[in-house]
Write a structure and sequence with these properties.
Blueprint lengths: L3 E4 L17 E2 L8 H15 L2 E4 L6 H14 L4 E4 L5 H14 L6 H11 L4 E6 L12 H7 L6 E6 L3 E4 L14 E6 L6 H9 L5 E3 L6 H5 L4 E7 L3 H9 L3 E3 L6 E3 L11 H9 L1
Parallel strand pairs: 1-2, 1-3, 3-4, 8-9
Antiparallel strand pairs: 5-6, 5-10, 6-7, 8-10, 11-12
Length: about 280
């Protein structure tokens, strides 16, 4: 069985990108079910798949986050990776699907978990917002705050990889990827054709599809008046080539194969990284 890719809500389990995309494991109502039931479910998943990578939002309910850490601690398992990159919810759902694509390949669990950190660099995630007064995840100047109070104002925002914010108008533009991508759009309580009519053509998007808006998006962006978007690499062969082109090493603590300087399963950093931290 392939390594399990788990998400904390059904709205984070996007439809398969291709026929090889493995299903997501949905940890539904993790903080509401009895602890022993949650422990049993995760233990059975580990027994079945060997390793579990939980892709979790930074704005997930505090009870869910606590429950995940409690389960991992009680099971005393280094086979559960909690991966929480600083991506908006739609971008996170896209990343989880990319890991589900790669889970069908001959990648070890440690390399697959490490691939998440690598692939975030190729995701451009943003939104069109009707207000930025409660946006605290992207720097917002005083002028933008003032313009938020003007009826009908809309703002184009990029949260990742580099923060950007513009008030949408005839000259508005946002810097995007310099490589071919697909785009996913999730509509909230806002009407706009700027993404499909202006942004996608400017970014040379190769395909645009719609998805339901994740429940956590309104919390992340500070408003329900939004349309969230994300560009990504859709092709499994490209994703696989990116991951396998990076040098692999063994985690000096748990022994699992990884790419990069940190093991996602046991959180150990490489001895070189630790040396730099203590001598820097």
């Amino acid at each position: 069985m392939p390594t399990a890719i788990a998400v904390t809500g059904a709205d984070m389990a996007l439809p398969p990108q291709d026929e090889r995309t493995v299903p997501a494991v949905v940890l539904k109502d993790l903080d509401r079910q009895p602890l022993d039931q949650a422990l049993t479910s995760l233990q059975q998943l580990i027994d079945q798949c060997g390793h579990v990578i939980v892709v979790c939002s930074r704005v997930v309910a505090p009870g869910v986050e606590r429950r995940l850490h409690t389960i991992r601690s009680l099971l005393e398992s280094d086979r559960i990776a909690l991966f929480r990159p600083d991506l908006p919810p739609l971008g996170l759902a896209v990343l989880a699907r990319q890991l589900r694509q790669l889970a069908s390949c001959d990648l070890s669990p440690g390399v697959l978990a490490s691939a998440g950190r690598l692939l975030t660099h190729y995701i451009h995630a943003g939104a069109v917002l009707g207000s930025v007064t409660k946006l605290d995840r992207v720097p917002v100047g005083l002028k933008s705050h003032a313009k938020s109070w003007v009826p009908g104002s809309q703002f184009g925002v990029i949260a990742h990889p580099e923060p950007q914010l513009v008030r949408i108008g005839p000259e508005a533009s946002l810097s995007g990827p310099e490589f071919a991508t697909s785009m996913l759009v999730a509509k909230g309580q806002l009407q706009t054709d700027w993404i499909a009519g202006t942004l996608a053509p400017a970014w040379n998007v190769q395909g645009l599809r719609e998805a339901p808006l994740p429940a956590e998006s309104a919390v992340w962006w500070g408003t329900a008046k939004l349309v969230e978007f994300c560009t990504f690499l859709p092709d499994l062969s490209v994703l696989y080539q990116l991951v396998t082109s990076v040098r692999q090493s063994s985690c000096h603590w748990c022994g699992i194969d990884v790419i990069g300087d940190r093991c996602v399963f046991c959180s150990a950093t490489s001895p070189l990284e630790q040396h730099q931290l203590t001598t820097g």
